[in-house]
Amino acid sequence: MAKDTRYTVIGAGNGGRAMAAHLALMGFQVTLYNRTPERIDPIRELGGIQLESYEGGPHGFGKLHLVTSDMGEAVAEADVIMVVVPSSAHAEIATRLSLHLRDGQIVVLHPGRTCGTMEVLKVLNDTGCQAKVIVAEAETFIYASRSEGPADARIFRIKRAVPLAALPATRTAQVLDVLHDAYPEFIDGVNVLHTGLNNMGAILHPALTLLNAGRIESTGGDFQFYIDGVTPSTARVLEVLDRERVTVAASLGVRARTALEWLRLAYNVRGQNLYEAIQNQSGYYGITAPKSLNHRYIFEDVPMSLVPIAALAQRYGVSVRGIESIIRLACFIHRTDYWRRGRTLDRLGIEELSVSELTHYVNEGVHPVAPVLVAA
Fold first, then answer.
1. SS3 at position 297
2. Is 301 in the active site?
3. What is the pLDDT of residue 370?
4. Phi and psi torsions of 182, nearest 5°
5. Exposed, middle or buried by CB within 10 Å (0-12, 13-18, 19+), for 187?
6. Which of 205, 228, 295, 334 is catalytic?
7. Residues 6+ apart with CB under 8 A from 141
8. In a 3-state reduction of DSSP, which class is residue 146?
């Protein structure tokens, strides 16, 4: 039976295909957009996506309403726009969307990484978008997923609870209400400082990739990323980075979850330490490592997650030497300056804000320097 809310999924990578197929199987009208038509030609020809899943999970052929590379066509009928692209593309997607958004639409970043909604709203306002929309972000991607063929997707696990927040936070309840029929797993994430600083990908992805760099290059990623790649020693590094993230959050008045608490919330797994908890997460089994170091775990998560956390730390007086070390290693390996390319505070429009002003902005949408930043 068809359901009323009309969804557009932006991005036809592993996650976008999994989300589009699952929404379609649930009975929603789903449009799938991807910038390059070649990537979605097989899906267009089939009229949908074949979804495989874990035992008891969603599976079958998800028939799509429309598959397109035209952004205007993609969002014309949408009530909710699900952005499932690397966060390094959020600014570009926001620029493209700004020409086509209409009043009342909801844009959700899956996930926002760190400060994603701030970046998107600033771009929308800088480009002169007049549409009254709500922009929200998920703390993490709801699926653990992969794809093997051009028109299929596989879900390894669906997280049982995913915090979500809108900017301002006064709009979060409205977004949760609209999404509830499809995703009851989304819960109130308090505000986007909470979702951004509870960004566990920032801790897990870059460090594990860099600490396993030799193995990735010598094997082409032929090992289980979280199971083989997380050893007692690498887990101890992750624990240091995690403590730094939690300390940055505390400087902003945010009680961030530790990695152990997050694993318990998202997957209901426990352990005496981070190494044990990760090894106990059955959904991580079968997920292989990146095939090369030219991977979003570095080129996305470093500038879009670690750089803004480090920038907030510097602004509000917190030492994050571990996080800074991971950023520097990424710069060395990729021969680029992620500090300059990342989400710096000036790019987010918050470089002049005190802690109380920043908190007021994310909660109420009131920006003391540039109040036009909030689109709705």
1. helix
2. yes
3. 65
4. -90, -40
5. middle
6. 205
7. 15, 84, 110, 111
8. strand
Pick the CATH number of 201-343 from 1.10.10.10, 3.30.70.120, 1.10.1040.10, 3.40.640.10: 1.10.1040.10
Residues of the chain where predicted confidence (pLDDT) is lower than 70: 1-2, 370-376
Whole-number Cα distances in Å, 156 to 51, 89, 130, 139, 269? 11, 25, 40, 19, 15
Phi, psi (degrees; rounded to nearest 5) at 198? -100, 20
- Kindly give the residue spans of alpha helices, DSSP state H, lying in the chain: 14-25, 37-46, 71-75, 90-98, 116-126, 172-179, 192-197, 201-211, 213-219, 232-251, 259-267, 274-279, 296-299, 301, 307-316, 321-334, 338-341, 345-348, 355-364
Residue 314 near residue 347 (C-beta atoms within 8 A): no
CA contacts within 13 A on the Cβ side of 151 = 18
Every domain of the chain and the residues it spans:
3-196, 201-343
Residue 167 near residue 135 (C-beta atoms within 8 A): yes
The one catalytic residue in 90, 194, 301, 367 is 301
Give dist(CA 76, CA 70) in Å, integer. Answer: 10
**Cα–Cα distance between 290 and 221 in angstroms, integer?**
5
Q: What pLDDT does residue 252 have?
A: 97
The owner of tokens 């090894």 is 279
Nearest to 353 by CA among 339, 343, 366, 372: 366
- Say if domain 3-196 classifies as CATH 3.30.200.20: no
Amino acid at 167: L
Residue carrying the six token digits 């979702």: 195
Length reported for the chain: 376
Q: How high is the pLDDT of residue 262?
A: 87
Q: At what angle do helices 321-334 and 232-251 cross, to 10 degrees?
A: 120
